Amino acid sequence: MRIDSWADMAVVGIIARAHGRKGDVVANLLTDFPEHRFQVGNTFYTLSEEEVQKLRIDRVRFQRGRPIVGFKGVDTMDAAEALRGAELRVLVSMLHKLPDDMYYSHELVGCRATTVSGEYIGDVVEVQGPVRAQRLIVQQGGQEVDIPLVEDICVRIDTVSRCVVVAPPEGLLELNRRKMTV
Fold first, then answer.
1. 3-94 placed in CATH 2.40.30.60
2. Do 10 and 89 contact (CB within 8 A), yes or no?
3. Do 3-94 and 105-177 come out as alike in CATH topology?
4. The pLDDT of residue 179 is above 70
5. pLDDT tens-digit profile of 73-85?
6. 3-state SS class at 50
7. What are the distances in angstroms from CA 57 to CA 9, 13, 39, 80, 94?
8. What is the distance between the alpha carbons of residues 111 and 136, in angstroms, rounded to a whole number?
9. What 3-state DSSP class applies to 88?
């Protein structure tokens, strides 16, 4: 698969670490549908050395809410450890339709963030954090700001017109603003 197809995929998890000696890994979830995504036979895509690779689930179990996954062809601790930090992606076409008040992370990236008064904050470049404690990473002019992705702060999200309207509590933007690191 070509690398240009990488952008046409959605992140549903990140490999945290190896688990055991037989090539299993622990995955951090970035999906609201873990039981659906993490089933034997399902395929994820990862990026390795500028090439998109397929990983097919051979075995899976859940421990403390996180999947422990064995992939076909990954059968040693060293092979599993080499996957540490890899994003697990699926084709966007494989995603469920979400309710109107829910969004996939990839739908928010590229949105223009403004305050309710119309002040431009920047563009969303990333969504970070676990599903229930996510924040938008917004960049403008060499600076970035973290904005909690909660209904009381992100008061309007329109993925069609690519905008997020923010009603930040006093001082939030200043407190969470920092210079970008290279």
1. yes
2. yes
3. no
4. yes
5. 999 999 999 999 9
6. coil
7. 18, 13, 7, 13, 16
8. 10
9. strand
CA-based nearest residue to 12, from 91, 93, 110:
91
Task: Record the tokens describing residue 26, joined without a space.
Answer: 């622990």
**Cα–Cα distance, 70 to 72 (Å, whole number):** 7
Residue ranges per domain, the chain? Answer: 3-94, 105-177
Tell me the pLDDT band of 48, cut-offs 50, 70 and 90: confident
Strands, DSSP E only, in 20-84?
24-29, 43-48, 51-63, 66-71
Distance in angstroms (rounded) separating the CA atoms of residues 29 and 16: 10
Using the predicted structure, report yes or no on whether residue 1 has a pLDDT greater than 70.
Answer: no
Number of H helices and E strands in the chain, helices first, is 4, 13
What is the C-alpha separation between 102 and 36, in angstroms, rounded? 18
Q: What CATH number has the domain spanning 105-177?
A: 2.30.30.240
